[in-house]
From TrEMBL:
This is Pectate lyase. Pectinolytic enzyme consist of four classes of enzymes: pectin lyase, polygalacturonase, pectin methylesterase and rhamnogalacturonase. Among pectinolytic enzymes, pectin lyase is the most important in depolymerization of pectin, since it cleaves internal glycosidic bonds of highly methylated pectins. Favors pectate, the anion, over pectin, the methyl ester. Its main location: secreted. Residues 218-241 are annotated as: Disordered. It comes from Parathielavia hyrcaniae.
Length: 241
């Protein structure tokens, strides 16, 4: 397992060194274009096959779980899979879930949406070309992102700014992440008691590690940045990888 993890980290680093693209594992077989979301219960290892929905990313609207490539039921684990670029939504977690070595070629609306109550673990893998965010956290609980690589993104993580029944607390733990070309690594709603803790991470061209916001209820205006930093724990800058 140590050798496997070291190999994954080495691949991520070599991708960053080569330029602003991910070194995604070689796809096994042909791309599978799903006509509907694949619903995962229990544990599923996809063997580095690649899946999409056969539709180009032509909108940045939230089109819901019907547009997702995978929907993870509460407690599900999805491993070793590539999400192709022809999709509107990537992976939706309905509660607690685990993603291991899940790669995103080109993020459309969001790569990963944590929608329910429960803890989410994202370990290994990576995403690139996210105009807005990679991980959207709408539910409650802790999202841990460990050993992940993000390249060219607005944010790696964002607690929802204007959901229906919005609130908290939501927590995010960032460990050993590698980032390049990211505006904000994490965004949290400090007025809802959200917290972020960043450790062991590195990168370049990251404008801000942690940004606090004022979250709002849907239909009551827009979420706005605040100047406080008390809920941002750990690293405030990232050393070069």
């Amino acid at each position: 397992m140590r050798f496997q993890f070291a190999t994954i980290v080495g691949m991520a680093l070599s991708g960053l060194a080569a330029g602003q693209t991910l070194n995604i594992p070689t796809r096994v077989g042909s791309i599978v274009s799903l006509s509907a979301p694949s619903v995962i219960s229990g544990s599923k290892d996809m063997g580095n096959r690649e899946y999409d929905r056969g539709r180009a990313c032509d909108t940045d609207a939230d089109t819901g779980s019907a547009s997702a490539v995978f929907i993870l039921e509460n407690g599900a684990t999805l491993s070793n899979v590539i999400i192709g670029k022809n999709q509107l939504e990537g992976v939706h977690c309905k509660g607690s879930c685990t993603l291991r070595n899940v790669w995103f070629r080109d993020v459309c609306e969001d790569a990963i949406s944590a929608l329910g109550n429960g803890n989410v673990l994202i370990e290994g893998g990576g995403a690139q070309e996210a105009k807005d965010k990679v991980v959207q956290h709408n539910g409650r609980g802790t999202v841990t992102i460990r050993g992940f690589t993000v390249v060219n993104a607005g944010k790696l993580y964002r607690g929802c700014g204007d959901c229906t029944n919005n609130g908290g607390p939501r927590n995010v733990v960032i460990q050993n992440v590698r980032a390049k070309g990211v505006s904000e690594l994490v965004g949290i709603n400090s007025n809802f008691g959200d917290t972020a803790n960043v450790s062991g991470s590195c990168g370049s061209s990251v404008k801000k590690v942690c940004q606090e916001y004022k979250g709002v209820q849907k239909g009551q205006g827009s979420s706005s940045k605040v100047s406080t930093t008390a809920n941002c724990k750990g690293q405030t800058t990232l050393p070069s990888c």
